[in-house]
Specification:
Radius of gyration: 31 Å
Number of helices: 2
Strand content: over 45%
Helix content: under 10%
Order of helices and strands: EEEEEEEEEHHEEEEEEEEEEEEEE
Structural class: mainly beta
Amino acid sequence: MRKALTAVVVLAAGGAASAFLVNRGDTSQAADQTAAALPVNTTKVTQQTLKDTETADGELGFGTTSSAVNRTAGTITAVPDSGQELKRGEPVYSVDNKPTTLLYGALPAYRKLVDGSEGTDVLQLEQNLSAMGYTGFTVDDEYTDATAEAVEEWQEDLGLDETGVVELGSVLFAPGHIRVDSVEAQEGAPIGPNQNVLTYTGTKKAVTVQLDAADQRLAKPQSKVEVTLPDGATVPGRVEKVSTVIIPAESQDKDPETKVEVIVAIDNQKAVAAWALASVDVTFTASERKNVLTVPVAALVALREGGFGVEVSDGTASRYVPVETGLFANGQVEISGAGIKAGTVVGIPK
């Protein structure tokens, strides 16, 4: 018994697949039956690396901005210049002529450190003291008499009272070197606790991208991206940090927006040295399939029996062959199936 096999031609539009029915005439129910006529338009199965990529707008700058918040009441007696770079052991700003010193560490300073204190902040302090050349203590998470003695020596070098106590507000922990982004306090002005003194960033150029929440799949930590500069040159980058930010509503009749903020690190700093701030394009690779067989999405037909197929032609006859589909990207689709190989001629329905 012979049946009319109905195939659905699959069309690609904006990366999505849509379909409409076409009648290929009388064929057997088997998937490999000869088509009624040879396809007018054909293409070949190709073997390639298929990438699902998306490009988003980004801003080249210095990455995430952080605030240095004052912790004591007094008078601002020294502030740095905008754009100034600071390293470990250097004063960030001063209140009542007492400096807040830059030290390296991921955990912000949140308490006074004294003999008997224990914790990660103690370990950070001792690591910094050791890096600055102070000795006589064990670098661990315990603040001991030996630690206090090293702190007294450090305080003497800074011209401070030798108390052996690290007061809250006397150090600023940051991940590394910092660059002063903007200064909010003025020398000679009074300042109270919890007031911003300045903002700072890292010293390396980075790209900031804000993605829609629906595109969060693109932001995979440590994944590679491509950054296109204003002059058309491209440089490689990698996703260094991903966080969620809320964009306030512009007016009362609009809702706040949730965005995914992505910081892209640029390892080749020389390639971006000429740009202070710039608008750039960032191309993310959501997924990648290497050395797979692909055809244009328009070559797919949906078989009545279920699933997808392609119309394989040898120049004298054609037949429908069922295939498994994989990644869809850039108008191409990954396929696999019996007899499907690189160079196989397949039809593209009108």
